[in-house]
Every structure is written in structure tokens, then in C-alpha cells.
């Protein structure tokens, strides 16, 4: 993603994808189990810790900060230019910790976090980029605390009569790092194979062209 979301694509991302981001990030936030999050076992007075994997320009982190005013928030993204935009958006808040890093299957184990560091991990609009989503999710399992939760969201592969094959061909022409899109059921199976138990899942629309899914899961 570092080679695509750079320069103008990074600086204009929030404007270009404003409506899409609002719908997908709202769906993601609706799937966070706030009660479960605060009941997650942790040391006395230890704040909730949240990681947004592939945080992009920091839009979801900003929303999470409002939802969890005492939380420590971490974001990691492969694109330095997207992180620059995130730093600008989050400049007035000391609770944010942004890091450059890759979610590729070969590097997921090298993320700069200790095991069982996070009570919540989010990953939005990124599944279609992952070279091996099962391996990436398996790597994320090591970062969750006991009782922690994962919320993952992305756009879905669509079925007939929607012309998905030429549509995805066009996506790859515009964004060569696109790997493939998954249906919700496929994404659920990948989560389960990676060691997660599905708590909730649903489909939703993010516009005429985009059908999406969102999943909340916990460690088995």
C-alpha cells in the first residue's frame, strides 16, 4: 500500500472517499462491543488499549478516541504519506501512537508490539490487500489480550447480476496492489481458521457500487 497511497492519493484520500469512509467506519464502530471491552481482564487502572491495523489517515482512530476518552490508541500503516495525514489529524491528542509497518504475512510477526497488548484490534477496508489474510489474522491473535476482540470490515465480492469480474479488473488497473475481495462468509471462514470465534457478522451497503461486510470476533 505504500506505493499506491502516497503523494496526492494520500493528501486527497479523506475527500475522495468521504462518503464511503463515513459509512464503513460507522458500521465498524457499531460492531465494537463496548461493554465487553471494559470487562476485558486487565491490571488495576490500566487503560483500554486499541490498535487500528492499517490505520490510513487516522479517521477511525479519531472516532475511537471520542468513543473511548481514556483509551490508549495505536495505529500502524505501511504508507508514510498516509501516516503523515494521520499525524496532522491527530496532532492535538497525546494518546495516539503511530508506527509505520506492514501487514504482509511475512512481516506480521515483526510488528513492534508485545504479545497480549491490545483489548481491541480494528482493521478496515484492508482485507482485499492482504497477501495471506489467514496468516495476518493469526499474527494479530498474539497481540490480543484474553477476552479481547477483533473488528474487521471490508468491501465484498459481489455476485450476479453485478458484473464483478470486469469491475475487479478495473480496480486492479487503478490500484495494482488490490489482491482480491471476499464475501462475508469467506471472511468468516478465514477468521475462524486463524483462531477466532465469530461473535457477530453482517452485510451492509456503502453505496451503489460497494457492498460491504463487518465481523466481530474473539479468540477461541
Structural class: alpha/beta
User: Might you state the CATH topology name?
Assistant: Rossmann fold
Would you identify the CATH architecture? 3-Layer(aba) Sandwich
Query: Biggest sheet, strands in spatial order?
Result: 3-2-1-4-5-7-6
The major β-sheet equals: 7 strands, mixed
Distance between the termini: 30 Å
Q: What's the helical proportion of residues?
A: 25-40%
CATH class: Alpha Beta
User: How many helices does DSSP assign?
Assistant: 9
Overall radius of gyration: 16 Å
Secondary-structure element string: HHHHEHEHEEHEHHEE
Proportion of beta-strand residues? 15-25%
Q: What is the typical, i.e. mean, pLDDT?
A: 93
CATH superfamily, please?
A: Vaccinia Virus protein VP39
Number of strands: 7
Q: Show unreliable segments.
A: none
Summed up, the domain count is 1
Please tell me what the overall shape is.
Answer: globular
Can you offer a commentary on this structure?
The protein is of the alpha/beta class. It has one domain: Rossmann fold. It is built from 9 helices and 7 strands; from the N terminus they run ααααβαβαββαβααββ. It has helices at 8-11, 13-16, 18-30, 34-39, 59-67, 80-89, 133-141, 164-174, 184-193, and strands spanning 49-53, 72-77, 96-100, 118-124, 144-155, 196-205, 211-219. It has a 7-stranded mixed β-sheet, with helices on both faces. The longest helix has 13 residues, at 18-30. The radius of gyration is 16 Å and the shape is globular. The protein starts with 7 loop residues before the first helix and ends with a strand. The model has no long low-confidence stretch (mean pLDDT 93).
